[in-house]
Amino acid sequence: MHPELLDFPIIYAIGRDGKTFFKLPGDLNEAGDTSPLFETIVKTIPNASKGTEKPFQMLVSAFERMNIWDGFGDGKSKPRNY
Question: Model-level pTM?
């Protein structure tokens, strides 16, 4: 068994309301936002350090224009260490 695999951050979330919490709230109507989630991502996931001098490459498989954003693309990115 690998106990180090059990060491991970826990974020409590109500996705339909866009609320995240570090600790389970006593009242689910408590005000919240997505900052605990993004703070945890920034703190725990390392930055890309390989191939930062090479340009980003992505094969776009779908692109959709929306009123809210200029556009939304979906695709597969290539690793920069090739």
Answer: 0.54
